[in-house]
Design goal:
Elements: H1 47-55, H2 61-66, H3 69-72, H4 80-93, H5 102-112, E1 115-116, H6 121-126, E2 131-132, E3 136-141, H7 147-157, E4 170-175, H8 182-192, H9 196-202, E5 203-207, H10 214-227, E6 230-236, H11 240-245, H12 252-273, E7 276-281, E8 283-285, E9 296-298, H13 301-307, E10 310-316, E11 321-329, E12 336-342, E13 345-347
Parallel strand pairs: 3-7, 3-10, 4-5, 4-6, 6-7
Antiparallel strand pairs: 1-2, 8-9, 10-11, 11-12, 12-13
Helix pairs in contact: 7-8, 10-12, 12-13
Length: 351
């Protein structure tokens, strides 16, 4: 379809049917990032048992290796012996376990990991290139700080070629706030020169109405990722449904346990498929802070703070300007970047 480019930089034409095969990182080496579950048949696992794993939501040999035997034994028709044999076989086709040298880790990271541009050069520089694949990035802030606008911008830039700062893959958008806008998607696509049909056909939206919708949505997401190239999964937002369904301190423990299950599934999806995962999150008052009159904190408590890899806090600036601050990261120095909201999504502040 139409030429895909980033702002003023022309790029090669990329059509929907030219998105890369799912088991490979666009632009990386030919080494397989994850192994389709069908490969287990070549190491002695029966076809019928593989089908049972697939029906339960396991589409890669890596997922068998990354899931405990206790959980896999819950799949109807699979005994403990069959599960243990499947995990042993998965270890033969995957190279997930075992010690590696720091050099090997760095080389694999350089080969597999890529970044998706946010639309703002200053914000990209703060994030060392943009939103990273293989990890979970949380975007937290008050209302009108640009959380959904940043998510929508990423939904477009992810479709671009990797050389242009994109992911060259489809986008899965889990919407729990009814905030996704096809009109905004079209406007942002126009700004980046992404063909509207390409965006319409490769951004997939799944509405989340209650806590029970998360598990089947993740199951469907993993199936889609295994069948086509997906570069980004967005959850907007991760806490809105849980805040409504669990109210008061009496239900706080149950809410946090459910949140932990959701986040674990999200994080494992990012690791298993080497895709970028972005969560938006809300703020609430912090009554425990006595040093300011308007103290706020991210919803989700320590469970959410510990399980995300990077927390990006947004706050309002002058006019349409917004300030992004890294609040948590093991790879990035804490710092700030200023960007601007526009009809075309996130962009640098106009000079």
């Amino acid at each position: 379809r139409g030429a895909i480019h980033r702002r003023d930089t022309m790029a090669t034409t990329v059509r929907a049917d030219q998105l890369q095969t799912p088991a490979h990182n666009p632009g990386a080496s030919d080494e397989t990032i994850w192994s389709p579950i069908d490969t287990l048949e070549s190491v002695g696992i029966q076809r019928g048992d593989i089908k049972k794993f697939q029906e339960a939501g396991y589409h890669t040999a890596d997922s068998i290796l990354m899931t405990s035997a206790r959980h896999l034994e819950r799949i109807k028709g699979l005994s403990e012996a069959k599960v243990l044999k499947a995990q042993d076989s998965a270890g033969k086709v995957c190279r997930r376990l075992g010690f590696q040298s720091a050099r090997a880790v760095r080389e694999k990271r350089q080969s597999d990991v890529f970044h998706i541009t946010t639309g703002s050069t200053e914000l990209d520089n703060l994030l060392k290139g943009g939103i990273e694949t293989g990890v979970v990035t949380e975007i937290v802030g008050e209302f009108r700080t640009g959380k959904t606008q940043l998510a929508m911008t990423l939904a477009v830039t992810s479709l671009m070629a990797q050389e242009q700062g994109g992911g060259n893959g489809a986008v899965l958008y889990l919407d729990s706030e009814n905030a996704f806008s096809d009109e905004r998607l079209a406007e942002i696509a126009d700004r980046f020169g992404v063909d509207r049909d390409l965006a319409d056909e490769n951004v997939f939206v799944h509405n989340i109405y209650n806590e029970d919708n998360f598990e089947p949505a993740f199951k469907e997401a993993k199936r889609m990722i295994a069948e086509q190239q997906v570069s980004l999964v967005i959850v907007d937002s991760v806490m809105s449904v849980l805040r409504n369904e669990y109210q008061g301190r009496g239900e706080l423990s149950a809410r946090q346990q459910k949140l932990s299950q959701i986040l674990y599934s999200i994080k494992r999806m990012a690791q298993e498929f080497n895709i970028a995962v972005v969560l938006t999150n809300q703020m609430c008052a912090d009554p425990g802070c006595t040093f300011t009159n308007d103290a706020k904190k991210a919803v989700g408590g320590h469970v959410l703070a510990h399980l995300v890899n990077l927390r990006l806090y947004l706050r309002k600036g002058r006019g349409e300007q917004r300030i992004a601050r890294i609040d948590k990261s093991c790879k990035h120095a804490l710092g700030e970047a200023t960007f601007e909201l526009s009809a075309g999504g996130i962009m640098d502040v106009a000079q």
